[in-house]
Design brief:
By secondary structure, the chain is mainly alpha-helical. The chain has helices at residues 4-10, 41-49, 86-98, 114-122, 137-148, 152-162, and strands spanning 72-76, 79-83. It folds into two domains: 4-98, no CATH class; 104-161, no CATH class. Helix content is 36%, strand content 6%. Helix 1 crosses helix 2 (41-49).
């Protein structure tokens, strides 16, 4: 027996046209997805269909085929905003979540003010210290010389080979 989400997805099965259907879905023939995070998208798309969103709303022109009536509304106190698409919902969530926040980027600790350095790095209440053990000295030396050395080509090859497995990146 199929779930409502699976039924919604089956009704939007792609036709073969350069790998995409009329509803913007990628064809099943495109089995390999290059970005690791995208492997989780299809179950999320399926869940969104149960909330009234259609995969058409992910097309490059998201407002071209939408209904005139909203699919939902955001209400907080006296504020009410109609939501017509998933893109509209995401944009509204971004707006609401960024209120009162500023983002700063530093290339190094020396660029921070003393209070910023304390708050982000030095405060014992919030910092995390990890112990690193070197178990294979030769392998460690190879990784350090590959990533931190003067030779660009081995570093580029290493990054290309392992890029799809990166889950946490501090740049």
């Amino acid at each position: 027996k199929t779930t409502p989400e699976e039924e919604a997805m089956e009704s939007e099965t792609p036709s073969e046209s350069n790998g995409q259907s009329d509803n913007g879905m990628v064809s099943e023939q495109w089995q390999e997805i290059e970005i690791p995070e995208t492997k989780d998208l299809m179950p999320r798309f399926q869940a969104l269909t149960s909330w009234g969103f259609k995969l058409q709303q992910f097309r490059s022109k998201p407002y071209e085929h939408l209904e005139e009536t909203p699919i939902g509304a955001y209400v907080k106190g006296a504020e009410e905003r109609s939501i017509y698409s998933l893109e509209g919902l995401i944009e509204h969530i971004k707006e609401v979540s960024q209120k009162g926040f500023t983002i700063q980027r530093f290339k190094g600790l020396g660029e921070m003010n003393a209070d910023q350095l304390w708050e982000t790095t030095m405060d014992p209440e919030s910092r995390v210290l990890l112990q690193v053990r070197i178990e294979d000295e030769a392998a460690t030396e190879m990784i350090f010389s590959t990533l931190m050395g003067d030779q660009v080509e081995p570093r580029r090859e290493f990054i290309q080979e392992h890029a799809m497995n990166v889950r946490v990146l501090d740049i």
